């Protein structure tokens, strides 16, 4: 039986509806001109805790953003319920272009990089001088990641009452890295936090370090307890009570403008994503010497022009040694 007549007109033929709805697909996206700007404080299981003005808001990512994910430190635009009340959910509709991105991979042979923090200005590498013993290779890897991301590194050495910082500081002196040395009793009195705070004002600083070095203890001394509790309560709505240190968390700095980002303790810091040509940009005194390097030079091979550049007195030999030590960390494990 024919559904239409012998000579059906095109207007008579029914078109199959969109299987996912009656509205046709379109590439036009809503402008969301009424969206409010905020910053991502933490991310947990698809839910993002954001600060909009003075209000902490729980949000989800809009579908039109596709696979683009927001991370801690991102500046975002939100619509929906921005009251911050319990059981309310806003929607992130835009993510601003990032000033910087701190990345890591699980290991050096892992092709998948993970964004840890966006828009940070500084990377604070926290290391204990004893209990546990310092791991220079892990410090080197964190420094390489900082240089690659364009972040200024800050070395924070804790537990100096158990061991001297002189030997470790001598290793990094040619890099010109700023540093703070603290004792355990200074953490209790607040003196350590006061000295570290001087390096954090007007900046967004990501803190990294492996377990037991005193990183979270220091962060707790730097941020107001009330704001930390408030952020933790909002995050627990979707985190089912998970402690906030299991994911990166941005916190407002006390007694000064700035932000502290507490990250989970790390066991390794893969550098598969790092381009060696970007690392040398952190050594401006050596960059002019690379003009005569062969194409694709790793800066650690017989034909590298940096050897002649340094031999001619244009730069300190210790600076070249430091560069090559950092570049070689990609081929070495942290525990080597």
What does this structure look like?
Helix content is 24%, strand content 23%. The protein is an alpha/beta fold and 336 residues long. The chain has a 6-stranded mixed beta sheet. Strands 1-2-3-5-4 form a 5-stranded mixed beta barrel. A two-stranded antiparallel sheet has the order 6-7. Helix 2 (166-172) links the parallel strand 9 (152-158) and strand 10. Helix 4 crosses helix 5 (215-222). Residues 233-244 have low confidence and may be disordered.
User: Main β-sheet: number of strands, strand sense, barrel status?
Assistant: 6 strands, mixed
User: Taking Cα atoms only, what radius of gyration do you get, to the nearest Å?
Assistant: 25 Å
N to C succession of SSEs = EEEEEEEEHEHEHHEHHEEHHH
Query: Globular, elongated, flat, extended or rod-shaped: what is the shape?
Result: globular
Q: Which secondary-structure class do the elements indicate?
A: alpha/beta
Number of strands: 13
Portion in beta strands: 15-25%
In percent, how helical is the residue content?
A: 10-25%
Count every helix, treating DSSP H or I runs of 4 or more residues as helices: 9
Low confidence ranges: 233-244
Short recap of the structure:
It is built from nine helices and 13 strands. The chain has helices at about 135-150, 165-170, 185-190, 190-195, 215-220, 225-240, 275-280, 305-310, 315-330, and strands at about 35-45, 45-50, 55-60, 75-80, 90-95, 100-105, 115-120, 120-130, 150-160, 180, 205-210, 250, 260.
